[in-house]
């Protein structure tokens, strides 16, 4: 049966007829306005496996962060997404010859009666973006990007709007298409470090002050007095389980000491880390787990994801033992990992979203992030106004040390000598 021609009737008919989302293929009428759009068709899928081959192929040359790689999305959807009963849609854009131009992995979220689309990953993903062929991204101006989202919203159906937070303004020197619609900067940026190929010491001399390097040297000497240590990359099932255990236990201890809820407590997150760090059908996993081993004990851990020539830090942890903590095992692990990636030819190492002392100590650059809000209905418009105001207030608080301190006290989250970490891990 041919698909309905009218964009306004297609989603409703598809839902009533029970048409599989993977079968929905929207090819707009080629009017003069349509010809200006650099895409030919939009396909909406429920199952990422239906797009796996072209997804992985697009990754090889696309503008893509590690958090939109197929090897990151699939385990996240099957674990955390399944546990939360989240709805997902995978949007594929193609040209007239069938070439894949972009893939947008979306989570459909309902909040306060409003249904909106956002990029998959939530707070577990530092960068929110689609996958774009570079020439396609360069061809999308703000008007075309807006038209694209409206068309996607129509194809999905019963959607009140889109909320895309923590989007990089550009990626690999190319403007991020949907960031052109941004309402303003995100509350926090993301810290990064350009690695000088195979010159690890030169990289750290450039990014770290002489005072910081001297302090780190003293910490290493103190740490060495506790025993023999080594950097471990968890690749076997046994090592993966051991590092995941250490990471989750250390996170639980840290958040308990701070008196705030532990965002890593959900059991599905363990499954995500385990599955994401294990070899899949394509071989190399996207997630990488590291530990600083002290006489066989994981005293600090690091979770990251690699995509192309970039390594993105997702989360870190360390033992809270008072004497051991004084030597900053987490910082030692981070610097050792930077050296490892530098020797491997990685060009950019980022530490993710949010402010933290260890980030400013090591990094000398930032990715500027922005938030995009696009309402599609009257109900969505009201929700977008509220969401924009909330993000703007958070940005103002984070930009003012006094306001941040007052907010910490008012929330009751933190007490004396504690720091805000909600976006840092």
Write the layout of secondary structure elements.
Elements: H1 10-17, E1 24-26, H2 32-35, E2 41-45, H3 52-59, H4 70-83, E3 87-94, E4 100-111, E5 114-119, E6 131-132, H5 134-139, H6 142-156, E7 161-168, E8 170-171, E9 174-175, E10 184-185, E11 190-194, H7 200-207, H8 210-224, E12 229-234, H9 237-258, H10 267-276, E13 287-294, E14 297-307, E15 310-318, H11 322-325, H12 329-343, E16 348-353, H13 357-362, E17 365-367, E18 369-375, H14 378-399, H15 401-411
Parallel strand pairs: 5-7, 15-16
Antiparallel strand pairs: 1-2, 2-3, 3-4, 4-5, 4-6, 7-18, 8-9, 10-18, 11-16, 11-17, 12-13, 13-14, 14-15
Helix pairs in contact: 4-10, 14-15
Task: Write up what this structure looks like.
The strands form three sheets. Strands 1, 2, 3, 4, 5, 6, 7, 10 and 18 form a nine-stranded mixed sheet that branches. This protein has a seven-stranded mixed sheet with strand order 12-13-14-15-16-11-17, with helices on both faces. A two-stranded antiparallel ribbon has the order 8-9. The longest helix has 22 residues, at about 235-260. It folds into two domains: about 10-185 and about 370-410; about 195-345, Aminopeptidase (3-Layer(aba) Sandwich). It has 15 helices and 18 strands. Strand 4 (about 100-110) and strand 5 form a beta hairpin. The radius of gyration is 23 Å and the shape is globular. The protein has helices at about 10-15, 30-35, 50-60, 70-85, 135-140, 140-155, 200-205, 210-225, 235-260, 265-275, 320-325, 330-345, 355-360, 380-400, 400-410; strands at about 25, 40-45, 85-95, 100-110, 115-120, 130, 160-170, 170, 175, 185, 190-195, 230-235, 285-295, 295-305, 310-320, 350-355, 365, 370-375. With about 425 residues, it is an alpha+beta fold. Residues about 1-35 and about 410-425 have low confidence and may be disordered. It is about 40% helix and about 25% strand.
